## 1
Amino acid sequence: MGKLFAVIMAVVSLTISATLPGAVEAADDADAAHVVAYYFHSTARCPTCYKLEQYSKEAIGPGLKVVNVDEKENSHYIKDYRLYTKSLVLSLVKGGKEIKWKNLDKIWEYSGNRQKFIDYVKNEMSALLKEAQ
């Protein structure tokens, strides 16, 4: 019975991580799978770039990491995630290590539709977490 309870709690924890804003990195257990979300931008930004960041924050919550890749200490992300423009990248972390990442390339396509953008991001987060189960 104790093992069943532990399994149920683990599933609930993963589900909460995938659905609650601000719970992007909610993983008390170092081995638990969770998603880290990054919005990458440069110093020069247009109104759409700011909108991408705003919509990303709405979809993900306060756990979103906003990173300026023009800053020297962040330039490695360009190579790490093969960035070529402003991007939203989801990183699946399990056991303290990144096991998979995905650049959400449709954010530009959905930049004119807030709800489609948010739904897209949330669905991609859920799909990534399901892969870790």
Note: The longest strand covers residues 34-41.
## 2
Amino acid sequence: MIGRITLKRALKRTAGLAAVADASIRRRGAAPHACILVYHRIADVSFVDPACDDWNVDPRTFERQVAALAECATIVPLSDVLRLLAERRNETRPLACLTFDDGYANFASAALPVLVRYGAPATVFVVTDAMDREGPMPFDAWSRAHAADQPPEAWRPLRWEELDRCVATGLVAVGAHSHTHRNGLGATREELDEEASRARSLLVARYGAAAGEAYSYPYGSRRLGQVTDAYVGAVRRAGFRTGVTTDLGVALPGDDPLALPRVEAHGLDTGAVITAKARGALGPYRLTDRLRRARRAGASTEGGH
């Protein structure tokens, strides 16, 4: 019997090939849009767990993806994306944003050097309660399963001092990925308010108002009930101005700034596939997106981190 993760990877590989074909006939610059890519782990992981997604892009693949993105798109800070979309006229290059969820230590050790080499801005969304934790993040099933057999750089959270060094480069913006990574599915208004407001207060206290601008919803699917109107309201009340989901799509002028769609950057994605995604050739991924399912019990979900 084919494992769930093996099947998922096969579907995404097929979708990538189809997206490249679609992008080759897609008229460039047809509509202003921005592809907000979402990454999680950037680490050397030499195996595929057939039962548990690692949400990983290895560092060499990540650099090839950023290089391809720099060739085909204009990489901009997330904070500027909607303003730039509104200002664009007859542009032939799409906009692209780089975002990283969860806040792994390998963002500083593996992703940041690539961002610096290419002068690429990025936003890292951290789970504030997980910062400085020595063990795996509680919501991360892969890390909990493999912390004993994989080096810490593959799974441990960022330390505050590491995040300080990232911010000091001038390329990295900090955003909140909630305080404890609570799933919005079934959460109360009070719980959602706590997740958003506490995360924002901790980040603003350390990095100033700019760190209270952007929020990434854990798991992040509106279709699966993980991002509800109540959650968006909590994020708005906390003071955030931008929110990103895991809903598949490119950002368009006039989109709700607190519920922007994103596109997963997968470890299987070649430079050509990343280029296709940046150009908005997402039709082949609609099927794989529809296969996502939420799990109500515990923190685990098929809806993404």
Note: Residues 296-303 have pLDDT under 50 and may be disordered.
## 3
Amino acid sequence: MKKRKYKRPPKYRTSSKKRRLNLRCCISWAILMATILIGIALVISAYLFFPQRTNILLLGLDYTDPWNDIGRTDTMILSTFVMPDGYVGLLSIPRDLWVSIPGIGGNRINTAHYFAESQQAGFGPVKAVETVEQNFQVDIDHFVRIRFEGFKEVVNAMGGLDIYLPEPMAGYPAGEHHLTGNKALAFTRNRLGSDDFFRMARGQLVLQAIYQQMLKPANWIKIPSFLQAFSAAIDSDVPFWLWPRLIFSLWYTGLDGIDNKIITRELTTPYITDSGADVLLPRWEMIHRLVNDMFGD
């Protein structure tokens, strides 16, 4: 009897082909997904680390009526964000610095916002930016304006502010303190036994404390309420797409990498105007040297 050769049923050959086809499809999808993910990562990296300097003028608005923003800017901080260098610089400007305000003339720098806002609503930040650009010889890309009332809400949204004082300040002894929004604002603005230079130093201490507190993982749960209070408290022309880059710059730089400086008393000369007002005359040669070190390319 002739022995018949065994033949594998066709269905097995078909299943094998299907398995190979499915494997090739899986590999193709994996390669496609990996390519997409790599592309997304490259786009995000290019966005976050694109070599660019962004200068922003921070304006702290004095108490005003709820229905308008006609007020002086008691806090003025010129900031710069540079990526991928990981450099963030903050330069506090004295409110009593006597400068030339475009279209107005000589006056305290904190009045630029007041005069412009009085003439046309919403024009205050524009005039403040123009004044700083003209006198400090630096280009400013955007502004952020915050009311003092809004600042209190931001601190309260954080659950209060934990701050360390290296020495006695504004009636507080040296050491750790927990401040509510009202107390944090009063601490920043306190003028008893101090002057504008001490106020600027305290203001930068508060900013550092806010930044340090929000970096702690235990406080990340408060970030949504913090961002909500912050967005409600500010008025700014910073585009929405730029905020993630600025926030990343702060995180990337780290607290120790932030360059905090103030225009010190050595860079000014006390002066009494004809009307009897105490002001500070700028020593521009030294100020421009400092500005160039922080904001120059």
Note: The longest strand covers residues 73-83.
